[in-house]
Design goal:
Blueprint (H helix, E strand, L loop, with lengths): L2 H4 L13 E7 L2 E7 L5 H8 L18 E4 L2 E4 L12 E3 L12 H8 L9 H16 L19 H7 L10 H12 L5
Parallel strand pairs: 1-5
Antiparallel strand pairs: 1-2, 3-4, 3-5
Helix pairs in contact: 3-6
């Protein structure tokens, strides 16, 4: 079917693009959407699915406030198009835990006061979940001292390096590192 058949004009020619039907699995539920093919995953989550936990910070992939997990990997949702994730498993902060049954990292952030204004917190927590999975899989970072070691030592330096894509404008970094370190070491939560 051509653009003339759909009645839509090509982008940049004063019209709108035809909508794309996609199916995502978000927080364990299948979601069917019709979106402009230029819609970022962030905007699909916030505007189409009303999942406002994922934050729009810089909208340029520089702050990490929009971090979600896609197929268990952390991704800045502002930098990827929704149509690219047909059939993928997307987990947002809303999918990690519930009131009364928080995810261990959510509890750790509360107990360690790992947030101040809270705007970056959903992205920080999603990124930390993904980061801990990367460590468990043995993926080294720039700060990993022994890349051939079967177990990566999750030092404060290692945590800071791995979380460097997530900015906290309130500077709660020491408490964020403490929360992640506590979970990594099987600490109290």
């Amino acid at each position: 079917m051509s653009q003339a058949d759909t009645g839509a004009e090509a982008p940049g020619q004063g019209g709108t693009a035809p909508l794309s039907a996609i199916e995502l699995r978000v927080n364990g539920q299948v979601q069917r959407l019709a979106v402009d093919p230029r819609t970022s995953l962030l905007d699909a989550l916030r505007e189409h699915l009303r999942l406002s936990g994922t934050k729009k910070g810089c909208d340029h992939g520089q702050c990490g406030a929009c971090t979600v997990l896609i197929n268990d990997r952390r991704v800045n949702s502002c930098l990827t198009l929704a149509v690219m994730h047909e059939g993928d498993e997307v987990v947002t902060i809303e999918g990690l835990g519930e009131p009364g049954d928080l995810h261990p990292l959510q509890r750790a952030f509360v107990e360690c006061d790992g947030f101040q204004c809270g705007y970056c917190t959903p992205g920080q927590i999603c990124s930390a979940v993904g980061m801990l999975a990367e460590v468990e899989a043995g993926w080294p970072s720039h700060a990993t001292a022994e890349v051939a070691s079967p177990r990566i030592a999750l030092t404060d330096e290692e945590i800071r390096e791995r979380m460097s894509g997530n900015i906290c404008r309130c500077a709660a970094y020491p408490n964020i590192v403490a929360a992640i370190r506590g979970i990594a070491q099987g600490g109290p939560v």
